[in-house]
């Protein structure tokens, strides 16, 4: 029995897992750090005592990760990374579906095999990450389906779990959504508090443009009057915050009359699946949905070990 998986080694991820993470646009090193932190939480006080007491150190096992509810998959390579960071080449993971696939209750997602202690120790850590990220993808897919055919896209926000932003935004993409800015330095967003600090919306917008002329600047507008002011200042990406449908329609019409198709509008605040389609049909290009990442219920997945695949030590 390996009493402690430390020290970790970035080289423990298999080439296939590394390639899969890179193909997904994820940094394997960053993913491994997330996995290490997650495993640390379970192993901070020592090894898995129950597994250590009941499983022979050299016992091997195999099992299946099964969907226990309908949903959309995300982060299968991350699930593999959990096992590989813990036990390296001693474990094998065979995927039966891909990220972005829809699954139904009872579908087999993964086959896993390796040391019994590793599968049992990593089980909850793996399912926590996989279930949460599949939950984000599943909720995103529901929103995407709700606005299908309108031309509007579902976009996430920075309302993410600390440390999991890249993974949660990847899960949004798996669900058919698109990403907003990743951090504070890749795009500017002039919000109400910036307007107060700068002494006005126009002043705030021009201050950002002068400081960062090559950066995309989005302006939050609470009223149709602010939409007009932002357009007059030269803003071409507007966030329409907490506007009722009629104000959204008026804002869209004003933007089109002022800048034609050269302006992009994003509805935010007070959105729900029940009104998503009506909002999309106002003509906005995006619906910003913080709930995709801050309120998505985990997809129910389980690891079932096979008694026939158990080899005692």
In short:
With 313 residues, the chain is of the alpha/beta class. Helix content is 44%, strand content 17%. The strands form three sheets. The protein has a six-stranded parallel beta sheet with strand order 6-11-10-9-8-7.
Description of the structure:
By secondary structure, this protein is α/β, with parallel strands linked by helices. The chain folds into 2 domains: 10-136 and 297-309, Aldehyde Oxidoreductase, domain 3 (Alpha-Beta Complex); 145-294, Alpha-Beta Barrel (TIM Barrel), CATH 3.20.20.70. It has helices at 15-23, 28-43, 49-54, 76-87, 116-146, 165-174, 192-198, 201-211, 224-233, 245-259, 273-280, 291-294; strands at 60-67, 71-72, 92-95, 102-103, 108-115, 153-155, 188-190, 217-221, 237-241, 264-268, 286-288, 301-305.
Cα-atom radius of gyration: 23 Å
Task: Give the strand line-up of the largest sheet.
Answer: 6-11-10-9-8-7
How many helical stretches?
A: 12
Helix content: 40-55%
Structural class: alpha/beta
Low-confidence stretches: 1-11
CATH class of the largest domain: Alpha Beta
* Mean pLDDT, all residues: 93
Give the number of domains. Answer: 2
The name of the CATH superfamily of the largest domain reads: Aldolase class I
The helix/strand series, from N terminus to C terminus, equals HHHEEHEEEHEHEHHEHEHEHEHE
- Overall shape: it is elongated
